[in-house]
Write a structure and sequence with these properties.
This protein is an alpha/beta fold. It has 21 helices and 17 strands.
Length: 605
C-alpha cells in the first residue's frame, strides 16, 4: 500500500480531510492528500488541523478529530513510516546491488593491475640484471684480455681489474638488494631506504615517519618506487642532501623528495621514471614530478590498502574537516536516514572539473578526446576505453572507443567516456563546448579566458580557474591537492538539502561552524582568480604552496615549534591591524579576519 492509499483510507474512515507531509530538504512537502489539495507547510508546527509526527520524519494531519480518530491517525503515521522505510530499503538494496557490480568490476581491474605489475617488475629486474651481466662483465673481459699485453705493467693492470671487479660486485649487490632488500620484510621500507641511502654518493636526509607497518605488497611497491627516485636524484656530484619527507595522509603513504641541486628538467624526470610511475599506478598510486623555484620535487603516493579507500590529500585525516564529515555521514547512514546513502557515495568520488571550450586541453590531459558535437562529454577512469551514450527516454548504450564513431546515436544528450588516464583517478573531467548557465554538479570550472560576469555570478558556488597554460600543474595544485576540502564542501552542501533529524542537525551545524578550512578555500579562490587582492603573501598563508605550518608561514622545514609559534603570532598581529584599519573595506576586512583566524590556528601547532 502506498502513501496515497493510506491517506485516503484515513480520510474515509474518519470522514475528515487528511494529508501526509513528507520531509523535503529543509522543509516539508505534501506527498498525498484526500479528498482535495492540502495547505502547504514548511514545518510541522505550521500544519493546520490535528497533527501526528511520522517516525523518521514528516507528519500526518486531519482537518479535525473526533472520538477514536486520534488512534487511527497514530496507526496511519506508523504505517506510513513502515512504507517509507520499505522504500528506503528497496533503494538501498538497488544501491548495494549496483555496488556489487562495481566491486566485481574492481576485482577484475585489480587482477589486470596485478598482471601489469608483474610484467613491469619482470622488466625492471631484467633490465637491472642485464646492465650488470652484459655491460659490466664485458668490461671485465676486456681488462682480462689486457693482461696478456701488460708486460711489466701487470701489477697495475691487476689493480685496475680488481677495482673494476669490486665495482661489479657492489653493483650486483645493489641489484640483488633491489630485487629483494633484506631489510624490507624485517624492518619496513624506511629502514630499507636508509640502508640504500648509505651506499649512494650524495647524503640523504629523512624527516617524518610512515607510521605503523602495512601489507607486504604496499611496502614493496612504495620501496621500489622510492629507491628508483632517490637513486636517480643522488647520482649528481653535489654534496647537498636530498630531502625525503615521510608522512601518512588520509589512508595512504606519502614520500616527497626535494632536491635543490638537480639539473634534471621535468620532462627528463618523467621520462626516466616512467616505468616506475606505471608500476605504481597499477597499484592505484601516484608518482608525480615537477620543478618549482629551481628545486626538483617528486611525490610518491600509495594507499595503505589497495581497495581505493584512500583520498589523495596533503593533510592528515585525523581531525580534518573531511574526517568530521565522514563521521557525520556514517551516523546518518547507520540511522537509515533517507537520502544519506547517496551522500555517502559522494565521499569516494573525485572532484568534478568542467573544462569550457577546451577539447585540446582534454586531449593533453587524458591522451584522448571524443568529438562530442555539442554534447557534454564526461571523462572518468576505466581500465579499458569505452563510451556510454545517454539519450532522452532510452536506456544508455555502451560501446568500445574503437567503434564509437560507427555506433554513436544521433540524439545523444550526454557522453560518458571511461579511459585509462592517471589523472582521471583523481578527478572527473567534463568537456563543455560553451559557457554553462548553471554550475550544479561541478566542483571546479576552468575558463580559457577571463569572464568577469561569470566570475561575479558563480564565484561563491564553484571554484573558477582562468587559463589553460600548464593545466596539469594547475589542476594538481588547485584541485588534486585540495581534493579533501572540495569533497567535504560538496558533501556538506548535499547534507543541507537532505533530511536532518536530531542529532544530525546539531552535528551538521557544529561542523559548519568549525569549518574554517572552507572559508580559507573560498578566500584562496577569490585571491587566485583576481577577484580580490591583499598585501603580503596571503595565498601562501592559505596553503596554496603546501598546508604544513612552516610552509604557510614561509619558514624552512627545520623550523622548531617555538619559531613557528613566534612567526604565527607576528602574522596574527599584522592581519588584525589591517582588519582594524578604518580605511579597509568590509570585503577586505572579512578577508583579513579569515587570515587572523588562520594565523591563530597556526600559533597553536
Amino acid at each position: 500500500m502506498d502513501f496515497e492509499a493510506l491517506v485516503r483510507e484515513l480520510a474515509e474512515s474518519t470522514g475528515q480531510s487528511a494529508a501526509y507531509y513528507a520531509p523535503d530538504g529543509d522543509g516539508l512537502t505534501v506527498a498525498a492528500s484526500w479528498p482535495g489539495p492540502a495547505a502547504q507547510a514548511d514545518r510541522v508546527e505550521s500544519i493546520p488541523g490535528v497533527v501526528e509526527r511520522v517516525p523518521g520524519g514528516g507528519a500526518v494531519a486531519l482537518s479535525s478529530a473526533g472520538a477514536g480518530d486520534l488512534q487511527r491517525l497514530r496507526r496511519t503515521a506508523h504505517k506510513i513510516a513502515l512504507v517509507a522505510a520499505d522504500d528506503r530499503l528497496r533503494a538501498e538494496r538497488e544501491r548495494l546491488t549496483e555496488r556489487v557490480h562495481v566491486l566485481e568490476a574492481d576485482a577484475r581491474a585489480a587482477r589486470e593491475r596485478l598482471a601489469e605489475v608483474r610484467e613491469l617488475e619482470r622488466r625492471r629486474i631484467a633490465v637491472a640484471l642485464t646492465a650488470v651481466t652484459t655491460r659490466e662483465f664485458t668490461d671485465l673481459r676486456s681488462l682480462l684480455a689486457d693482461l696478456d699485453y701488460a708486460g711489466s705493467d701487470t701489477a697495475r693492470a691487476l689493480t685496475a681489474f680488481r677495482t673494476a671487479l669490486d665495482d661489479v660486485i657492489d653493483r650486483f649487490r645493489t641489484v640483488v638488494r633491489g630485487v629483494h632488500p633484506a631489510m624490507l620484510p624485517d624492518r619496513g621500507p624506511v629502514a630499507a631506504l636508509e640502508e640504500l641511502a648509505a651506499d649512494l654518493p650524495r647524503p640523504i636526509r629523512f624527516t617524518g615517519d610512515l607510521g605503523r607497518r602495512v601489507g607486504w605488497e604496499v611496502e614493496s611497491g612504495i620501496y621500489h618506487a622510492a629507491a628508483a627516485v632517490v637513486s636517480l636524484l643522488a647520482e649528481g656530484p653535489s654534496r647537498d642532501p636530498v630531502d625525503i619527507e615521510l608522512s601518512r595522509v588520509n589512508g595512504a603513504l606519502v614520500l616527497t623528495f626535494t632536491d635543490g641541486a638537480s639539473t634534471l628538467t621535468g620532462a627528463e624526470l618523467r621520462s626516466t621514471l616512467k616505468d616506475d610511475a606505471d608500476r605504481l599506478a597499477a597499484f592505484g598510486g601516484i608518482l608525480d614530478t615537477w620543478v618549482t623555484g629551481g628545486r626538483v620535487v617528486v611525490r610518491i603516493w600509495l594507499p595503505e590498502r589497495l581497495d581505493g579507500s584512500a583520498v589523495v590529500a596533503p593533510a592528515s585525516a585525523e581531525g580534518t574537516l573531511l574526517a568530521r564529515v565522514r563521521d557525520l555521514v556514517a551516523t546518518a547512514v547507520r540511522e537509515s536516514v533517507a537520502g544519506w546513502a547517496e551522500i555517502a557515495d559522494r565521499l569516494d568520488q573525485p572532484p568534478t572539473v568542467a573544462l569550457v571550450d577546451s577539447s585540446g586541453a582534454v586531449e593533453l590531459l587524458t591522451g584522448y578526446t571524443f568529438a562530442s558535437d555539442g554534447a557534454a562529454a564526461w571523462y572518468t577512469h576505466g581500465r579499458t576505453g569505452d563510451v556510454t551514450f545517454h539519450r532522452p527516454g532510452l536506456p544508455p548504450v555502451t560501446t568500445p572507443v574503437s567503434v564509437a564513431g560507427l555506433t554513436r546515436p544521433s540524439d545523444v544528450s550526454r557522453l560518458v567516456i571511461r579511459w585509462p588516464a592517471d589523472i582521471l583517478r583523481h578527478l572527473t573531467l567534463v568537456d563543455i563546448p560553451t559557457l554553462p548557465t548553471a554550475v550544479t554538479g561541478f566542483d571546479v570550472i576552468v575558463l580559457p579566458r577571463p569572464n568577469p560576469t561569470f566570475l561575479r555570478t558563480f564565484r561563491d558556488k564553484v571554484d573558477i580557474i582562468v587559463g589553460t597554460d600548464d593545466l596539469a600543474a594547475l589542476l594538481r595544485r588547485r584541485v588534486i591537492e585540495r581534493a579533501d576540502l572540495i569533497t567535504a564542501r560538496s558533501v556538506l552542501a548535499a547534507a543541507r538539502r537532505a533530511p536532518r533529524p536530531e542529532p544530525l542537525a546539531r552535528l551538521l551545524d557544529r561542523i559548519e561552524a568549525d569549518a574554517h578550512e572552507l572559508a580559507e578555500l573560498s578566500l584562496l579562490n577569490d585571491l587566485e582568480s583576481g577577484h580580490l587582492t591583499l598585501p603580503g603573501d596571503p595565498i601562501r598563508l592559505l596553503g596554496a604552496h603546501g598546508r604544513a605550518a612552516h610552509v604557510r608561514l614561509g619558514l624552512p622545514a627545520s623550523s622548531t615549534r617555538d619559531e613557528i609559534h613566534h612567526a604565527a603570532v607576528t602574522a596574527t598581529a599584522l592581519w588584525r591591524t589591517r582588519a582594524g584599519n578604518p580605511a579597509t573595506s568590509p570585503h577586505h576586512r572579512d578577508a583579513c579576519l579569515i587570515l587572523v583566524r588562520t594565523c591563530e590556528g597556526l600559533s597553536l601547532i
